Description:
- The protein is α+β, with helices and mostly antiparallel strands and 340 residues long.
- The protein is built from six helices and 21 strands.
- It starts with 6 loop residues before the first helix and ends with a strand.
- The model is unreliable at 7-35 (pLDDT under 50).
Amino acid sequence: MQGRISLPTLCHFLLPWAFITFHRALGDQAPHPGPHYLLPPIHEVIHSRRGATTTLPCVLGAPPPSYKVRWSKVEPGDLRETPILITNGLHARGYGPLGGRARMRRGHRLDASLVIAGVRLEDEGRYRCELINGIEDESVALTLRLEGVVFPYQPSRGRYQFNYYEAKQACEEQDGRLATYAQLYQAWTEGLDWCNAGWLLEGSVRYPVLTARAPCGGRGRPGIRSYGPRDRKRDRYDAFCFTSALSGHVFFVPGRLTLSEAHAACRRRGAMVAKVGHLYAAWKFSGLDQCDGGWLADGSVRFPIKTPRPRCGGLPDPGVRSFGFPRPQQAAYGTYCYSE
């Protein structure tokens, strides 16, 4: 009937107005009229876990006549941006290893949000949603932050054995990656107090101190102590590793086993000897509490404590305790296994 407005036409006019009104209600400035098309994100930090599917929001207040949206990841420690996905609103093309797990959400015609499936440890970081319209490009930045746990790591040879690249490899071998400064800081606020300096992902060397003391940088204020710029190839320190939630589970097998017998015991149960990162993740996310030392894949013996108690490590705080690296032939411990 003439004189009536159809529902699709009404939505065409009202949807941009609704987004602008929503942001005004939250105290955000409305998009400037003209070439400013992207709405500022309501939350600039998006929290997720390894293995989850997460969405990085990017919404247009109004569509330009013609445009492309490019998603990229800002690599830590340099100015390089790695492209993930480019779309013109109808078709999208992914790039690199992350592009194979990323897609556009397309919840509505103004939605340029990015969906990442199977989030990995290396996905944490800063992302940019850039609108390219050939007149005045603009972008919004978001940070993907994974829930996880930081753990200090050194090899059986003792402290300060890793250059930067060896530290990076060591963390990856233990189901983790080098922690960022932000992750170390978060761990410090949650109680991490460690006197050995370790490499971080950005290439810096630091250590977290809660209780200032003479053998640990002096009696100054608590905080994250820094060694300043270091040579990534020549200088040697420990590593601070980061890991997140597991897709499988960790369980304890009792006994008086050698390291080789521990491997055999886990294989008989369809599992593998757990890595250090597996044990920390199970302690952090699954509440694993076991007052028995057990072999891990790197040859160390550790046990996780959620509820501190006498005769169970002797320390007042929860954590993963370590017996160091006993002789592999020493038949004195059980083992922690990991099964997908």
